[in-house]
Amino acid sequence: MDELDRELIMALSRDARAPISELADQLGVTRTTLRARLTRLKDSGEIIGFTVQTKSTIAQRAVRGLMMLGIEGRGTERIMSRLAAMPQVMAVHSTNGSWDLIAEIGTDTLEHLDATLFEIRRMEGITRSETNLLLSTRKGR
Questions:
Q1: Which CATH class is domain 55-134?
Q2: How far apart are CA 21 and CA 28, in angstroms?
Q3: Counting beta carbons within 10 angstroms of the beta carbon of residue 69, is it exposed (0 to 12), middle (13 to 18) or buried (19 or more)?
Q4: Looking at residue 89, what DSSP letter applies?
Q5: Average pLDDT, stretch 52-57?
């Protein structure tokens, strides 16, 4: 992946429905070049899909947080699978540094979030955790 691919992905993350001609102008390439790059990124699996985010999606999960997790031994994949199966867990990220995983969690109430955090903390192999509530979300264009 080169700089043009990265710029294309950034442009698509701002507006995944932007017309090819608009993206090509924005990036200073021809429509043919842009279309070929987009096809290659999709075929290689670098781009796995496009999505729409709505107010109602966020509203359904009024209480959101990031839970950082420390894992003991080699249980990371098993724990990732268990987390991903939970409906309250919106995403699971592996990371470096002092935490092994970060789980994005969304619930309808603080009580439900607390119960979810308790359930996760009881999973075998999780040695420590820290949770931060997300107060607001902004995405600039």
A1: alpha beta
A2: 10
A3: buried
A4: E
A5: 62
pTM: 0.59
Residue 51 main-chain phi, psi, to 5 deg: -145, 165
Is the per-residue pLDDT at 132 higher than 60?
Answer: yes
Task: Rounding to the nearest 10 degrees, give the CA dihedral for residues 128, 69, 54, 44.
Answer: -170
Q: Where are the domains of the chain?
A: 3-43, 55-134
- Type and span of the H or E element at 112: helix 110-121
Quote the crossing angle between the two packed helices 20-27 and 31-43, to the nearest 10°. 100
Sheet holding 63-71, edge to edge: 89-94, 101-107, 63-71, 126-134
- Residue located via tokens 């999505």: 51
pLDDT digits (tens, 9 = 90+) for 68-99: 999 998 889 999 989 988 989 989 999 988 99
**What's the topology of domain 3-43?**
Arc Repressor Mutant, subunit A (1.10.10)
